[in-house]
């Protein structure tokens, strides 16, 4: 399977929870990193790390560190 296809095949992308050098929580999925944007009730929203610099709208939502929503489409 070409790498480009792999990127968008969600079932093959395993999210990894990590901590940045500044102590912020991150999710790494393949080549992309998501930053915690906010938490509403139990639902945490994570946006692509280039959301601010490139306007990428990819995002994931988690509840208790379980992925409940993934929009893993990037503009970069
Ligand atoms: Zn992105």
TrEMBL record:
This is FLYWCH-type domain-containing protein. The keyword Zinc applies. Residues 17-76 form the FLYWCH-type domain. Pfam families: FLYWCH. Keywords: Metal-binding, Zinc, Zinc-finger. Gene3D superfamilies: 2.20.25.240.
